[in-house]
Design goal:
The strands form four sheets. An eight-stranded mixed β-sheet has the order 1-5-6-9-12-13-14-16. A three-stranded antiparallel β-sheet has the order 2-4-3, covered by helices on one side. The two termini are about 20 Å apart. The radius of gyration is 20 Å and the shape is globular. By secondary structure, it is of the alpha+beta class. Helix content is about 25%, strand content about 25%. A hairpin with a 2-residue loop joins strand 5 and strand 6. Among the domains are: about 90 residues, T-fold (Orthogonal Bundle); about 150 residues, Roll (T-fold).
């Protein structure tokens, strides 16, 4: 999937041999999902689906059908802010090889937008077939990491692993409590400097951050990140990072992108068992605001088991804002992965 994978497993010292098998089982899960969903492999099932666009139905595996159905769910939930058919736009802007990235002509953006949108994908999960219109392509980079992590956690749980931390490309899910029965401490990266700016204490569940600092280029004093609004065809501006905490990694991964593109926390405030942290410049028009003027906005869902949801090293006055929305009005935003 074009990223790094780390897994830490904790077992009693008398079970070290089991831990070795745990790790191999985890890596085997990720290898299999990479074979299915990587955009960077010519032999992946996703690549075959993209190549078959305009040519009728393509037979797909159960995992790919599942993640495509989840993608449709989050597209509808976010009113199109999350959309895996954004691939042609990401390619047009050159973000698959950032060294060659450049601002495309407006006419090319408008033309490419005609191939983007979930209406270009037909999915029959029961028959395990998918159909893409000509010119349409899928990039699962905003959800596949989380899906793979959830599959790893399921395998580790089946193996009775008492505690583990799984990190795939910055999306993290934990199993059990950290050694010493403490919450896991997950660092929050500074959006403009090579250091941490805060931390989240997580007892269970997952955390994912979408930011404008992973892949970007600058032109005429403007930063353009790889996170593109599939509705406008333009890279999102005015947001540094969006962190989401959720019960599973698929949900956290997808919602961090959806909320980043939606440029706000309104979507997360409507979601049951989800919380978020938005980091932006004080003046959204100033893309290079100095570190001491970063603006934090935090939501905290009371039912989600998080200890001290966010601690800022440099802004101790930042406290969680507890949502006062009636729980009965909350939307169910958590995707339940098929077994």
């Amino acid at each position: 999937m074009g990223t790094t994978f780390d897994v830490t497993v904790y077992r009693p010292s008398t079970e070290s041999a089991l831990a070795d098998v745990d790790l191999e089982s985890a890596f085997d899960v990720v290898r299999k999902i990479d074979q299915l969903m990587s955009l960077y492999r010519d032999d992946s099932e996703l690549t075959a689906l993209n190549k078959g666009a305009g040519g009728g139905e393509t037979k797909i595996s159960a995992p790919l059908a599942d993640i495509l159905q989840a993608s449709v769910f989050y597209t509808r939930l976010s009113d199109g802010a999350f959309d895996v058919t954004v691939q042609p736009l990401v390619d047009l802007w050159g973000f698959y090889r950032v060294a060659n990235a450049a601002v495309p002509p407006e006419g090319e953006i408008k033309k490419t937008l005609e191939t983007v949108g979930m209406d270009h994908l037909s999915l029959d999960k029961s028959a395990r077939t998918a159909t893409l219109d000509a010119g349409a392509k899928i990039d699962l980079g905003a959800i596949a990491k989380g899906y793979a992590i959830d599959r790893v956690i399921a395998v580790l749980r089946e193996r009775s692993v008492p505690a583990a931390l799984v990190n795939l490309g910055g999306t993290v899910r934990v199993l059990g409590k950290a050694p010493g029965h403490r919450p896991w401490i997950i660092g929050i990266r500074h959006p403009r400097e090579n250091r941490l700016i805060g931390e989240v204490r997580l007892e269970r569940g997952a955390i994912s951050t979408s930011g404008d600092y992973d892949r970007y280029f600058e032109a005429d004093g403007q930063r353009y990140s790889h996170i593109i609004d599939p509705r406008s065809g333009q890279p999102v501006q005015g947001v540094y990072a969006m962190t989401v905490l959720a019960p599973n990694a698929t949900t956290a991964d997808a919602l961090s992108t959806a909320a980043f593109v939606a440029d706000g926390l309104d979507l997360l405030l409507e979601c049951r068992n989800v919380s978020g942290l938005k980091i932006e410049p004080q003046n959204s028009g100033d893309q290079e605001t100095s570190p001491d003027t970063l603006l934090f906005t935090v939501t905290s869902e009371p039912d989600f088991p998080v200890k001290a949801p966010f601690t800022s090293y440099e802004h101790p006055s930042v406290h969680p804002l507890i949502s006062t929305i009636d729980h009965s009005a909350y939307r169910d935003c958590v995707w339940q992965i098929d077994n």
